[in-house]
């Protein structure tokens, strides 16, 4: 007896719901698993974590304090998140990281929700999947630094502005909702001061281009102005009143404007620095960038697409023109790029399928290329800990293992593209998530030993800082000690300092 159309539709709906639930569970596991498998790393995470810890202990949520001294290099959004983690009773490694990871998961849910309303569920799912399983977004979601919180609220402002951009007229329902992106921008300004405001400029610019200069007045109406002022200005006003011009000088002159031209901040990089960095942040999905010209051609007149492209292009130009560069600076561009890749991928599937849900040759090759990159995970577990701990030049690259992994994964990718057709992106995304989970389980213990001060602290609870040690080690020791340690009088380069 043949199944009725209703029963078939119900089975398909149940399968879709099960797949969606499994995907959500996998992403939550990917973002929350092993957050304490590695101690705080780098020069920034231990300092930011120490400031948040100090806020929780002192109850002073206005003036950031690092080891007993005011520290004005960054606004307080991340510190507040870390302080909340401390007040919740989380440990020294989980308190700075769990709030960031939870914020990232909430953002991914918002990203899907906004995009399925603006376009459709396929575009929303692709964009959320690309972002969630990209190396950059995942990595910065698992460490307590300022880049992810600012990027999440900045992108929330962009997403909630797209309806206004698309209206291209002086009045409409989205004009009355501009208080939402204004509030998000205010919170983003508590993450990195002027940076999100500069990155946001393409949004009103595209609106003006399509609707005239009068549209600029939409942002100057009472609702958005009050929303921005209510979220951003209280802390800036209170911190200025308490700390005076020194706060303004350090935060805005030294840490914002001087990054454009001063060599004193020691992050000088060539103009092309962000080209490979952006590819690394998008790993393994960056081969899909090759589909943007063709996939976005039918959408080139869509003001929303122009706005997203404007954010990416303007952001790359702005950051590349600055003298000082760090990889995390371009993280706020990643979600917009993922949305563009999702739109191009969905458009390519709709317009380039060869029948029976099959992909054309270009889409097939891009799927195979993404899968081939997933084959690098076995080699990466050996390279990444050594590179972060001792520098990339000190890392021995297993070329044979890398080549074998890429070759086998490329063949698998071709098979996935031919077997699953338009469902191949979902299959590859599951492989990417599994690869990152395997990387976390395999590499994080090695990263803890190579790049964190936690093993050294647990081994001897040093009472002094080794002379000549890197900032990464010293700041980590200071954080776990809860204070700034004095320099050790004697240092044996081959043996850890003896505790006296």
Number of strands: 2
Distance between the termini: 84 Å
Helix/sheet category: mainly alpha
Alpha plus pi helix count: 23
Helix content: 55-70%
- What do the pLDDT scores average to? 90
Oligomer: single chain
> Runs with pLDDT <50, length 5+?
490-500
Largest sheet: 2 strands, antiparallel
Global outline: globular
Physical arrangement of strands within the biggest beta sheet: 1-2
- Beta content comes to under 5%
Question: How much is the radius of gyration in Å?
Answer: 24 Å
Q: Please provide the ordered H/E string of secondary-structure elements.
A: HHEEHHHHHHHHHHHHHHHHHHHHH
Q: Can you put this structure into words, describing what you see?
A:
The protein is globular, with a radius of gyration of 24 Å. Among the domains are: 97-352, no CATH class; 355-447, no CATH class. Helix 11 crosses helix 16 (303-321). By secondary structure, the protein is mostly helical. It has helices at residues 5-32, 44-58, 77-87, 98-118, 121-132, 135-140, 147-159, 162-167, 179-192, 195-199, 202-211, 222-243, 245-257, 274-281, 292-296, 303-321, 334-352, 361-374, 377-390, 399-420, 424-451, 454-460, 471-481; strands at residues 65-66, 69-70. The chain is 65% helix and 1% strand. The protein has 23 helices and two strands. The termini are far apart. It has a two-stranded antiparallel ribbon. The model is unreliable at 490-500 (pLDDT under 50).
């Amino acid at each position: 007896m043949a199944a009725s159309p209703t029963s078939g539709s119900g089975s398909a709906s149940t399968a879709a719901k099960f797949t969606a639930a499994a995907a959500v569970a996998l992403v939550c596991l990917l973002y929350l698993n092993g957050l304490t498998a590695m101690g705080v790393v780098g020069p920034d995470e231990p300092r930011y974590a120490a400031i948040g810890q100090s806020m929780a202990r002192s109850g002073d949520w206005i003036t950031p304090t690092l080891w007993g001294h005011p520290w004005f290099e960054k606004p307080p959004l991340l510190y507040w998140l870390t302080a909340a983690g401390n007040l919740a009773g989380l440990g020294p490694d989980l308190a700075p990281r769990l709030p960031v990871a939870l914020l990232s998961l909430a953002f991914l849910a918002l990203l899907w929700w906004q995009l399925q309303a603006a376009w459709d569920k396929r575009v929303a799912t692709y964009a959320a999947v690309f972002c969630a399983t990209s190396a950059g977004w995942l990595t910065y979601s698992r460490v307590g630094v300022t880049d992810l919180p600012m990027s999440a609220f900045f992108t929330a402002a962009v997403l909630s502005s797209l309806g206004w951009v698309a209206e291209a007229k002086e009045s409409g329902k989205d004009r009355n909702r501009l208080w939402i992106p204004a509030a998000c921008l205010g919170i983003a300004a508590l993450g990195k001061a002027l940076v999100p405001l500069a990155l946001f400029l393409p949004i009103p610019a595209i609106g003006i281009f399509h609707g005239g200069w009068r549209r600029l007045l939409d942002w100057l109406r009472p609702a958005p102005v009050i929303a921005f002022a209510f979220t951003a200005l209280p802390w800036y006003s209170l911190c200025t009143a308490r700390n005076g011009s020194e706060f303004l000088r350090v935060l805005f002159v030294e840490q914002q404007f001087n990054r454009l031209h001063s060599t004193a901040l020691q992050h000088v990089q060539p103009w092309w620095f962000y080209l490979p960095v952006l590819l690394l942040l998008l790993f393994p999905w960056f081969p899909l960038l090759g589909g943007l010209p063709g996939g976005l051609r039918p959408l080139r007149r869509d003001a929303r697409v122009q706005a997203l492209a404007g954010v990416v292009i303007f952001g790359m130009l702005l950051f590349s023109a600055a003298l000082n560069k760090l990889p995390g600076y371009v993280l706020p561009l990643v979600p917009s790029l993922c949305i563009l890749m999702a739109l191009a991928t969905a458009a390519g599937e709709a317009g380039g399928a060869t029948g029976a849900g099959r992909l054309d040759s270009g889409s097939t090759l891009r799927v195979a290329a993404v899968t081939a990159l997933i084959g690098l995970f076995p080699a990466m577990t050996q390279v990444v800990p050594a590179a972060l701990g001792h520098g990339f030049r000190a890392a021995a690259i297993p070329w044979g293992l890398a080549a074998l992994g890429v070759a086998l994964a490329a063949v698998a990718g071709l098979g996935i593209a031919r077997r699953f057709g338009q469902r191949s992106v979902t299959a590859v995304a599951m492989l990417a998530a599994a690869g990152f989970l395997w990387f976390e389980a395999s590499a994080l213990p090695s990263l803890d030993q190579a790049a964190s001060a936690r093993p050294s602290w647990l081994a001897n609870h040093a009472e002094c800082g080794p002379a000549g040690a890197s900032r990464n080690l010293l700041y980590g020791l200071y954080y776990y000690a809860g204070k700034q340690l004095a320099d050790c009088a004697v240092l044996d380069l081959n043996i850890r300092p003896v505790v006296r």
